[in-house]
Amino acid sequence: MYNYSNNGVALIEYFRKKSNEIINIASQVIAKNATLRGNHLELVMSKLLKDFIPKKYTLGTGVVFDPSGKQSLQSDVVIWDEQNYPRIEQYGHNLFFVESVKAVLEIKTNFSSNNMKDIINKCERVNELFPIRPSRRTVFNKARDVLLTDWDC
């Protein structure tokens, strides 16, 4: 295990500045339309993530599907393995093979009970596509239970 304690303050300062940069960019949206504001935030978050994910992965938006033809709902950000799998581009949206997907993210401009229900629904649909992995399922169920309790969904 590496010891980063000598650079700890510098790393904290780097991430603080990066966080402020993203907040400033996110706040520059002029549009009042909720969809446009949401799209802006998704692009900002994608830019941030792109700086930190391994080069083997790419960011996209679209739907995940499995070999049986089941599909997720539309996902704001899909982190997928571009080096080993293709995507199917369909004029404005993408289809991703479930085997290529490393993570799926939902971006919300505000938190509400309805938004939390939407996130949970989308997570459940994505989870159905993956082979059952007890550790993933347990973490998701615990997170869902906390969200349902905390947000009174």
Structure description:
With 153 residues, this protein is of the alpha+beta class. It has one domain. It is built from four helices and five strands, in the order H-H-E-E-E-E-E-H-H. Strands 3-4-1-2-5 form a five-stranded mixed beta sheet. Helix 1 (8-26) packs antiparallel against helix 2 and helix 3 (113-129) runs antiparallel to helix 4. The relative contact order is 0.10.
Give a nutshell description of this structure.
The protein is α+β, with helices and mostly antiparallel strands.
How many DSSP H or I helices?
Answer: 4
SSE string, helices as H and strands as E: HHEEEEEHH
The dominant shape is: globular
Please give the order of strands in the largest beta sheet: 3-4-1-2-5
Query: Would you report the number of β strands?
Result: 5
Provide the residue-averaged pLDDT. Answer: 81
Approximate strand percentage: 15-25%
Rg to the nearest angstrom?
A: 17 Å
